[in-house]
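Design request, tokens follow.
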């Protein structure tokens, strides 16, 4: 009898634990439904029903060359910023991963500092630095290059976006680099490989997962920038977020703004699928190189 009661209690424990786990997930599920899934459904609905039911909002978007140009500029800027962030962040993360604990802490604080200040404050600071009479142009004039327009240009937008997004590239790469065993490259060098060969054939393939995670994060975040292109750029540098704001905030065209949002979402998902396929192929190549 006692054995039967014991078995019954043991059988009840997994069921009770499963209920507790489901209860713990309930707040997250409610947040997802209330703040993501429902608004997404509403945006899709508005894109087809405001002002009248049909494909009119989508036909309007694709019939205007200015909308297509803004979309292409948005994806091109996000891709360019992603590449620049990678070129800056990879060596920085490498130095962080190989430095002493004290130097590593200092470098970590430096890379996180931009995230501790307001986006508006950082953007206004860049306006001061990049203007025609700013410090950067003063330095360029001193070294003989001369003053060049940096504000209200694509250059200013890219600089501002890069400075903000570098931490999102550094941290994923660094988190992978610190797990790489340095003895692997040392062993390759001791067996006759050149340091550069050991780095590119051993070390880099082992850090590709961090690179892909950082590139994915920076690219997606870069697609939604609004403040920096608006303040550092000009109407010629308009990105798709500003186009949505114009339709919804200024013209009260909720259907058109929703259609632009849906198109951006679908284009982003398509880009992510292509990127994931490319990353999977590169990972396989990298693993083959390590072997």
């Amino acid at each position: 009898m006692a054995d039967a009661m014991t078995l019954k209690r043991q059988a009840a424990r997994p069921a009770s634990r499963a209920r507790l786990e489901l209860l713990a997930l309930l707040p997250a599920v409610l947040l997802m439904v209330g703040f993501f899934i429902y608004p997404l459904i509403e945006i899709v609905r508005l894109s087809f029903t405001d002002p009248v039911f049909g494909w009119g909002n989508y036909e309007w978007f694709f019939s205007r060359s200015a909308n297509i140009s803004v979309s292409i500029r948005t994806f091109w800027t996000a891709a360019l910023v992603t590449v620049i962030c990678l070129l800056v962040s990879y060596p920085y993360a490498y130095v962080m991963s190989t430095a002493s604990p004290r130097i590593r802490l200092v470098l970590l604080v430096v890379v996180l500092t931009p995230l501790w200040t307001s986006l508006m404050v950082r953007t206004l600071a860049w306006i001061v630095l990049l203007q025609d009479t700013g410090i950067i142009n003063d330095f360029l004039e001193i070294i003989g290059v001369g003053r060049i327009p940096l504000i209200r240009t694509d250059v200013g937008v890219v600089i501002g976006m890069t400075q903000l997004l570098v931490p999102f590239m550094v941290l994923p790469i660094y988190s992978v680099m610190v797990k790489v065993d340095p003895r692997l490259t040392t062993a390759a060098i001791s067996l006759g490989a050149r340091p550069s060969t050991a780095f590119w054939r051993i070390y880099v393939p082992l850090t590709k997962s961090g690179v892909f995670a950082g590139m994915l994060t920076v690219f997606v975040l870069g697609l939604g920038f609004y403040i920096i292109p608006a303040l550092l750029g000009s109407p010629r540098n308009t990105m798709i977020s500003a186009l949505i704001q114009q339709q919804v905030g200024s013209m009260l065209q909720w259907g058109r703004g929703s259609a632009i949002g849906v198109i951006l979402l679908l284009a982003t998902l398509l880009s992510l699928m292509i990127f994931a396929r490319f990353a999977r192929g590169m990972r396989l190549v990298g693993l083959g190189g390590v072997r």
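Comment from the thread starter after seeing the answer: thanks! The chain has two domains: 1-49, 56-115+164-290.
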